[in-house]
Structure to design on (452 residues):
């Protein structure tokens, strides 16, 4: 599982936060749906695809586990319609390095789904990416807002299709644990810390933190920073126009330290958090009845995929609330994976056409843990009210969004395991009192990666 992340995007607060807050306060509808066609499709095909008998297509992405399995159902439908054979190629972070090795060896995949804005720019700069063909472009123009189309363009040329998006400002909670402790979903950071204190005092650690995966820690920081420092500062820091030693970063890290600095708040304490990978951070929150390993877990709508691996039901046992406001407004961070062709083949373009259509997205949406920026997707494709309303809120935001901070950065700083921002924030999780040291490390790594 990789952030969604989604290259990730930061959507402006008002439209999305308001809609999400209303939607997420509901308990959901238990996940019932209308009967579906093959592989979860909701209607007859709306996109025409060429016949590709005997053609072999490889698709690379950093998705694993249930996320990969659900995407494979989409690929099987493509095979059925075209006669092509599609193979999923598991990629590793950073995906630019993975693809570079494949290309250097003369065996690039036909299509890759890139989880970072910087990765698309790098693919174009390295002359790996192929411009979008007319059929895929037509689907994109018909189904996507200008903002999402712009995300997939470099230098005015359209290269990518944002197939998958995510709202990454969500905190999922174990309903039984909250009820047992007499806790209500908080709306502010102060209320979150108070709830964490009550939960931990009741015998259930408050939060399951996936510290082994540094990308989750960047998301914690970004939500706090966006809400506390505001969008103007956020944009400046994202472009490294202000330094990581800025006082606004100090304030955000100090705030994050209020949570990370309480060992009793974290499932397994700091050492346990640092050894916990994202999938486990979710599953351990929704097993054990009213005494799970933790009462809450922070991350995007894709958490639902991992909840599905437990006995908990989204909308009943597993509920969700928006990331609490730290400053004047609650933050909303989103992201997405952009599909790009790496070979000038008919099969690659046909797959991009399919991925830009509502047909593909509705198959994936029916599986859960997936949100599409495709505005032609029927909301009934989503398996429960929570995910349906998250998707509606994403579409309602229109073009009013900005990129996730770490995904705007060079991969060496914002997207590499064991390095840059990921490593600095893991060290901060281990020692939250060292705010100044963390800032100095972040600034040194950022200056090196940005070349300034």
């Amino acid at each position: 599982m990789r952030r969604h992340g989604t290259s990730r995007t930061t959507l402006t607060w008002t439209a999305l936060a308001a809609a999400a807050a209303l939607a997420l306060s509901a308990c959901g509808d238990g996940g019932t749906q209308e009967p579906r066609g093959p592989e979860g499709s909701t209607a007859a095909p709306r996109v025409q695809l060429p016949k590709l008998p005997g053609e072999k297509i490889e698709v690379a992405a950093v998705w694993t586990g249930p996320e990969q399995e659900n995407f494979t159902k989409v690929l099987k439908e493509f095979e059925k319609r075209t006669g092509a054979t599609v193979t999923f190629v598991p990629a590793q972070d950073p995906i630019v390095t993975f693809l570079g090795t494949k290309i250097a060896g003369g065996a690039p995949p036909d299509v890759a789904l890139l989880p970072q804005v910087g990765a698309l720019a790098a693919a174009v700069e390295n002359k790996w990416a192929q411009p979008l063909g007319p059929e895929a472009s037509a689907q994109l123009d018909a189904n996507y807002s200008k903002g999402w189309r712009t995300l997939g363009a470099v230098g005015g040329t359209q290269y990518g299709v944002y197939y998958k998006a995510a709202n990454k400002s969500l905190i999922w909670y174990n309903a039984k644990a909250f009820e047992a402790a007499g806790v209500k979903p908080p709306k502010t950071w102060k209320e979150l810390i108070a709830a964490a204190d009550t939960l931990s005092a009741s015998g259930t650690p408050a939060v399951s933190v996936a510290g082994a995966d540094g990308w989750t820690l960047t998301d914690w920081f970004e939500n706090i920073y966006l809400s506390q420092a505001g969008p103007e500062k956020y944009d400046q820091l994202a472009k490294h126009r202000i330094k990581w030693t800025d006082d606004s970063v100090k304030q955000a890290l100090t705030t994050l330290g209020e949570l990370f600095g309480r060992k009793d708040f974290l499932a397994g304490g700091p050492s346990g958090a640092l050894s916990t990978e994202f999938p486990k951070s979710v599953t351990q929150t929704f097993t054990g009845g009213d005494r799970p390993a933790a009462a809450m877990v922070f991350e995007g709508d894709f958490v639902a995929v991992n909840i599905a691996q437990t006995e908990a039901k989204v909308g009943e046992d597993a509920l969700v609330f928006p990331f609490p406001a730290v400053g004047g407004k609650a933050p909303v961070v989103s992201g997405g994976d952009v599909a790009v062709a790496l070979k000038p083949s008919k099969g690659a373009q046909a797959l991009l056409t399919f991925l830009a259509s509502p047909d593909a997205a509705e198959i994936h949406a029916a599986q859960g843990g997936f949100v599409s920026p495709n505005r032609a997707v029927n909301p009934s494709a989503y398996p429960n009210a929570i995910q349906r309303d998250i998707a509606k809120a994403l579409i309602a935001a229109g073009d009013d969004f900005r990129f996730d901070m770490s995904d705007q950065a060079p991969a060496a700083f914002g997207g590499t395991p064991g390095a840059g921002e990921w490593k600095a924030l893991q060290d901060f999780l281990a020692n939250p009192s060292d705010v100044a040291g963390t800032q100095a490390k972040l600034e040194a790594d950022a200056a090196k990666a940005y070349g300034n």
